[in-house]
Structures are given as C-alpha cells and as structure tokens.
Specification:
Number of strands: 6
Oligomer: single chain
Largest sheet: 4 strands, antiparallel
Order of helices and strands: EEHEEHHHEE
Strand order of the largest sheet: 2-1-3-4
Number of domains: 1
Amino acid sequence: MGVTLWHFAETPDGSMRRISAARFERFWDGEDRLTPSSPGVLRTVQVALLVAGRRVQRVVHANHTRYRVSADGSLDPAHREHAIGGIAEWLEFPELEPEPVTNVVDLGPKIAKREYDARHAWAPSAEQLDAVAAAINAAAERPPVVVVVAGALRGV
C-alpha cells in the first residue's frame, strides 16, 4: 500500500478536471501552465488517497486550494514560496504516523491550518465535489470510499 495525491482543477466553466500528478508537479515547479479557473486564480481540490495496486482503498485527506497564477496559467513564484511555508506548518498525516499519547495538546498545526485556509482555501460547489467523489469512487476497490457531507469530501 502507498499514498498518492490526486489533483483536480476547476475549469473556466466551473467543471472539475483531473490533472495528472506529473503535470501538476511540472506546474508547481514552474515548468508547465494550467488554464486558470478565473483571471489570476487556479482553484484545485487535492485528495491524498491510500492505494493498493492502483486501486483506491480510502481517503486520507482532502484540501481545496486556491493558487495565484499569471495570465498564461503559470504559478506565481512568490505565491509558491508562501504556500510551501504555510503547508509545512500544518500538514500532518495522523493516520499514518501516530503520535505518542500525552496530556499536552499542540495547537500550532491547527492555528497554522486556519491561517493557511484564510489565504489559500476556497469552497467548491456540491456539484464540483460530487464530480471529484465520482472520479475517486470509480477507481476504488470497494466503492464508495468517499462521499460529500456538509460541503466537504469525507472518507467512508
């Protein structure tokens, strides 16, 4: 088993389109362009999935991220650096790396996530989330592995 990251980008007409990991990595590295969702903005849904033999087993995490892009669809380098710093402060995979139980609660990652979301998050429509869930469930070994609940993707 392993973890993979699926990327979906909002198109100018509001539909969601899956972007290959290789293409998104080239976009992130400044070597490729993606069609902006609207002028200066690319809105994405990124989903971390637990997979076995290319079959989705379960959803680990979902994020709705807004990127600042130039008119040609390339990622704004200053935005990239700011996003990296913000992600590094809050990204955790508690299901994969359990922490020892203590009486101390570290609120740092939760606060950093709220600050990151205030700058970079967006709210996809129910139709957009349904499209993402349908694509993930189509690749699942035993669907459904994800549903839309209260405006968010939730693992089943």
